[in-house]
Amino acid sequence: MLNAIGGVELSSIAKGYQVADHMLKTSDVKLILSRSICPGKYLILISGDVGEVNASVEAGISIASYCLADNFVIPNIHEDVLKAIENTVIIEEPRALGVIEAFSVSAIIEAADAAVKAADVKLIEIRLAMALGGKGFVTMTGSVASVETAVNAGAMAVSKKGLLVDKVIIPNPRKELFSENI
Fold first, then answer.
1. pLDDT by residue (tens digit) across 140-178?
2. Which end of the chain is more exposed for a tag (fewer CB within 10 A), N or C?
3. Which domain holds residue 100?
4. Within a 13 Å sphere around the CA of 17, how many CA atoms are in the beta-carbon half?
């Protein structure tokens, strides 16, 4: 049962390949993503059983050395987080808009999970570092009160790591903000 997600973010692309290989050889996990991200970092995302994900991330950390930028394991990941990472969410009736921005991809995934678990919101997208200078952001929609609760919960998760850039709640956004061109 794939109920956990884990990630290792590195400051070296070369070391990223080595760490990804080691993580996959150490545990029975599914590779979600393994690629270079801006600005010259490398991101590995895996999923699987909590114990396997923990073991895989720990194995990655053990050889990452000075290249480790960030890491995380989220047990009982909310199913909407993976959909938002894959950018496969369709919003038919957008409501209030919430945005959380973080200095790390790992932190924004943790923020998205905390947000969607804290209130009745729909995650729209989790953008991971590409053309963002290594930052990440998550967007969500729902009632104003729900978005406010979710954004605050997600921002708190990022703030614990000292990686919060900003958070915004727009009560009545223009529909153009939900366009695929943004």
1. 999 999 999 999 999 999 999 999 999 999 999 988 887
2. N
3. 79-178
4. 3
